[in-house]
Amino acid sequence: MEINQLQMKKPRILCLHGYGDSGKILEKTLGKWPEFVLEKMDLVYIDAPFAADPSSFIERFDSPHYMWFQAFHHDHDQFNKSFDEAISYIEEQMIKLGPFDGVLGVSQGGSVTSTLPGMQKQGVALTKVPKIKFVIIISGAKLGGLLFPSSPQLAKNAFSTPIDIPSLHIVGEKDELVLPQYQFELMESFVRPTLLYHHGGHGVPDPLDDNGVKTEGGDQSQESSSSEFELTTLPQFLRFKVRIPSRGRI
Question: Which stretches are transmembrane (predicted)?
Answer without folding.
Answer: none
